[in-house]
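Design review, sub-item: ligand-bound model
Attendees: FS, YL, KQ
YL presented the inputs for the zinc ion complex:
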Amino acid sequence: MFFLASTKKYVFFSWEWNILNTIYPDRKRVGSFSGEIMKKQKNSFSPRAISARMAYLCKTFPFVRIKRCGTSLCNRPIEALVMGCGRKTLLFVGAHHGSEYLTANLLLDFAEELCRAVDAGKKLFSFSARELLERRTLILLPCVNPDGVALALCGASSDNPLGRKQIAMNRGSEDFSKWQANARGVDINHNYNYRFYRYKELEKGHGILPGRSRYAGDYPESEPETLAVCRLVEEYRARLSVLLSFHSQGEVIYYHDSPLTRQGARFLSRTSGYSLEVAEGLAAYGGLTDWANTLSIPAYTLEIGRGENPLPRDTAPLLYITLREMLISSLAFF
Ligand SMILES: [Zn+2]
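KQ shared the predicted structure:
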């Protein structure tokens, strides 16, 4: 793919179109069940569309199962796709932040391409898809924060007490497009148990309150969304060879530099083209990957795409094309 500066359009090569037609079958050229499911959803990025696509993959491919990890504050399921049978397990999570719903889409595109390749006995890059999943287990939790995604996509309604409270937390605005937190204004990616109380002091100094982003909650793991992820990580702790947490945006990989993470960081940067950075300031407290590192799990935060959140929805195919080599080859590397 290359970028046509004069028209601000991305131009895909033909082999890339073939991939896009496989994973975006609702495009003109191909019609398939997955595409129909996505079309039926009013918004193909919504929590309901995410669940429908996961159910479709589970129903279509016998080697995929859905694992219920928890339930959000507003009673939405927090679910993961599990596939493969190796002991070494890779865990990829997306959409900690409401306005970053493209990360959920990225993980589902990856799941769909991988499943179709396994089913057809195809190779992806130089790897046999079947062999990859015989040697590894892959867990994809595309949407940690379904309530936040729903808020970012649809906003809050002033018809009910919760909606009115959310609008107040959003400084009176009904524009929720940049909302990152969960339904009660806690930023889940500051709610993990890593330097939590030090962050609470900084939070006070910065005047951060429950709202759109950065409020850490009353105590570590106070939110059901955080707990769902922590339980999953604890369950697979001894088997996890890597944890990737997807956010947007910046085309950057954040990590804590140590012998545990160094090699993996170089691999991720080389295969994605993203730069490596060590997290600093308010971003270096209470995050999932910070906490996972303390459990000796190599963990990285990937900020996909570039621009302003929410990233334009029509860049979703481009993001997948850019990152598919990294996603696929991770299954062989970690
Ligand atoms: Zn984020």
